[in-house]
Amino acid sequence: MRILLVEDDALLGDALEAGLKQAGHAVDWVRDGIRADTALATEDYAAVVLDLGLPRKDGIEVLRGLRAKKRSLPVLILTARDTVDDRIKGLDAGADDYLVKPFDLGELNARLRALLRRAGGQPAPVLTAAGLSLDPATRRVLAQGQEVDLSAKEYALLHALMQHPGRALSRAQLEQHLYAWGEEIGSNAVEVYIHHLRRKLGADAIRTLRGIGYVVAKEAP
Ligand code: CA
């Protein structure tokens, strides 16, 4: 999933970026509130990890601006200020969850998984569709009960499609999911990954809707 990370602390930002990438996300990291606004206006993220104390524009203001535009993407706030007031302010401004620094990277990733589940309308921790199952906690994928070994990008692509079974995603939308800034996108990268996935999961696992995109059906083929 494509995640926007907003954190001005270089050491913490580094660790967070690495931890989120480790969990299989494509991560864009910005260090102030104005850059966060720009990123949110131009890219399509699955979730935002937002520090509250930021240069140029406070995290709370970034969050209020986002919610004023009725954007519903999940936001997890990070606060160094362990006061109840701060957390209440953040939740009232539209945050979906929060963590107080210092926190554990494993907990951050688990909370993100929960937010992404809810956003995808899939309350069960393991995603299932079309004879496939995908567990975001362990990144295990099963096809007809057999474990399948996927590359990081193949996994990310399948995760994006299985987040909303029955809903087609265009090539451009899939590229948004798969690539952070600065990552080079091959001109037919998505087609190549789809080809690999079909080889590993079965030819019918992912359907092509001509002129629209790709879809994982709700029911087994
Ligand atoms: Ca800060």
DSSP, total strands = 11
Mean pLDDT: 93
**How many structural domains?**
2
The shape, in one word, is elongated
Order of helices and strands: EHEHEHEHEHEEEEHHHEE
Q: Which radius of gyration do the C-alpha atoms yield?
A: 18 Å
Structural class: alpha/beta
What does this protein structure show overall?
With 221 residues, this protein is α/β, with parallel strands linked by helices. The protein folds into two domains: 2-119, Response regulator (Rossmann fold), CATH 3.40.50; 127-215, Winged helix-like DNA-binding domain superfamily/Winged helix DNA-binding domain (Arc Repressor Mutant, subunit A, Orthogonal Bundle). The protein has eight helices and eleven strands. It has helices spanning 10-22, 33-42, 59-68, 84-92, 105-119, 152-163, 171-178, 189-201; strands at 2-6, 26-30, 47-51, 75-79, 97-100, 127-129, 132-135, 140-143, 146-148, 207-209, 213-215. A five-stranded parallel beta sheet has the order 2-1-3-4-5, sandwiched between helices. Strand 10 (207-209) and strand 11 form a beta hairpin. Helix 2 packs parallel to helix 3 (59-68) and helix 6 (152-163) crosses helix 8 (189-201). The two termini are 25 Å apart. The structure holds calcium ion (CA). The site of calcium ion has 5 residues, from loops.
